[in-house]
Write a structure and sequence with these properties.
By secondary structure, the chain is of the alpha/beta class. It contains eight helices and nine strands.
Length: 231
Amino acid sequence: RVTAQDGAALAVEGPTPLLRTRAWRAGDVEIQDLASQRVGDGVPLGSGRFVWDCCAGAGGKTLQLWARLDGRGAIHASDVSPSRLVSLRKRLQRVDGRNVRVWPWDGKGPPALPPEVAARGGFDTVLLDAPCSGSGTWRRKPDARLRSVPSSLGRWSQRQGDLLVAAAATVRPGGALVYATCSVFVEENEAVVAAFLANRPGWSLEQEQLHGAPDADADTLYGAVLRREVR
């Protein structure tokens, strides 16, 4: 049974695993949590944009952005994990994602910009889906809550703040920076954004929102859209 959700999302129920369907093998559909899709839908895009998904993981949101651009722009996808980038490349091959460039990034400061991006003064849009406590996934991973250490939130937020500063340095004037986590904690979400804005004149917050549970059958993700001013 297939039920339409908001946007391009479909909820699928039935005995056949989606990975065995003809639609998945043909690259017509991807598996992605609804809240994650909502964050991806909120990433500002436009024709001809240069986009960087800097903590892409295995590429769920990369593929979503690729589909939204529909060949009218270029996406760069990075991650610190070589194995995740291998998985991302395999997923791109299945959908023939030729306008996606994949390269490693360790997060220890801004990367060297590709020449075509440097010529524009930076990326038009950067998505930072930051590593976090994963508390937004506790709905489907209740045992993870038992392994969570409250004292680790400070370590997570420090890392998130450092990544946000590094990612921001690659955004062109007038461009957008989207900060996202799969966390429910203010310390990893609103507080990280507020600290960034307090120390970075020339940036403004356009919107921020929690997506998913309990309003939807989904994880809980936080997303904030920041804008670099043109001076």
